[in-house]
Amino acid sequence: MHPHLVVDFAHIAPSAPIEEAVRAGAARLNSSCPDLIGCQATISGPCDGHHLAEPVHIHLCVTLPGTQFDIEHPLVGREDMGSAVEEAFDAAQRRLEGWMQARHKPGAPRLN
Prior knowledge:
Elements: E1 4-10, H1 16-32, E2 38-44, E3 57-64, E4 67-74, H2 81-103
Parallel strand pairs: 1-2
Antiparallel strand pairs: 2-3, 3-4
């Protein structure tokens, strides 16, 4: 199954390399969990009127059968945007692995 993928840029110029990094991260998630329904990635910069030193945030919303989860990852320090996207997807992968393990345990609590 090919999950539905949405990549949005808010208050920041769109970037083809960052979009490609998001697509690669989503493909990794899908390869480890074919049940993945969708993934929405929003890369957001500082809002109008805010100081430019505010961090860029990466927000992932991953949709699975019966649940979804959110990952927030701020761009910090000297970290580059590609690394931040990769770290956000690493966190999503860990959550996804937890969901898959819990799914196979009877009476396990839901992820969200």
